[in-house]
Amino acid sequence: xxxxxxxxxxxRHITIERxxxxxxxxxxxxxxxxxxxxxxxxxxxxxxxxxGSAISRFIADRSAIVPVPAATSLARLQSSVRGLHRFLVRxxxxxxxxxxxxxxxxxxxxxxxxxxxDQVELLLGAPAADEPLGIRDRALLELLYATxxxxxxxxxLDVDDLSHGDVLRLRGKGSKERIVPVGSFARDAVDxxxxxxxxALAAQGRSSARLFLGARGAPLSRQSAWLIIxxxxxxxxxxxxxxxxxxxxxxxxxxxxxxxxxRVVQELLGHxxxxxxxxxxxxxxxxxxDIYATSHPRAR
Length: 300
Fold this sequence. Notes:
The chain is mainly alpha-helical and 300 residues long. Helix content is 56%, strand content 3%. The protein is built from 14 helices and 2 strands. The chain has helices at residues 3-17, 22-41, 52-65, 71-90, 117-124, 132-147, 151-155, 184-196, 198-202, 222-235, 244-257, 262-269, 274-277, 285-295, and strands at residues 167-171, 177-181. The protein has a two-stranded antiparallel sheet with strand order 1-2. Helix 2 (22-41) crosses helix 4.
């Protein structure tokens, strides 16, 4: 099969049959366009002529021009190529998968960026307390920081999920449920939103069980939550980058700095493996200096 036709068929497959998001499909398409161009330059225009050594040369060429910080992009490129060739074997177009020689590159481990406690206080206090949407935004931010939940988990909450007193039921990846405590600050902020704001928002649109609603009464989207967080960061005049995951990172980091056991934090975050949580146990250089200065008898 012509390489171009094979790529088109694969992209249709992941779009229609697998239902991948437009963003993901677009990334695969860009990767495979690069792959097709390289094959064309190498005089390969049919999938039956693609060998493992050709794929290895392609990855080696890309590795030489992709900087280390973009190693994740190289890993995704390999995933795109493997996906294409596995698809061709499953469809009976090819007998063997030449991409079996690929080994995923080691990507540099990056420490999560967490806010300081003072920065979190500024962020949480940024929404206008005398405006309805400000009250909603404060409740959203408080809940994200209090539970360490993913933004998709919080925007997916129903009002009934709060009916367990001082704990909250979250639905995470793979529809796995977990119960997390909710502190008094977050609970008070959510109660204020439920009593003073949500009924009016709900009256603007169709009936919805979702906890957080937009200005027109529709369930609040992840994108809208992201904009709320960014607006709060700008209003708080924070000079660091703040994303929806920043509060989750800050939640985990502050718990561990406060003495929480890593396995408890694992349960609260909903990580399948404690290895994922242990990335938060890295102590910052400043913290190391402080501990050394106060603990070592000859540090000063």
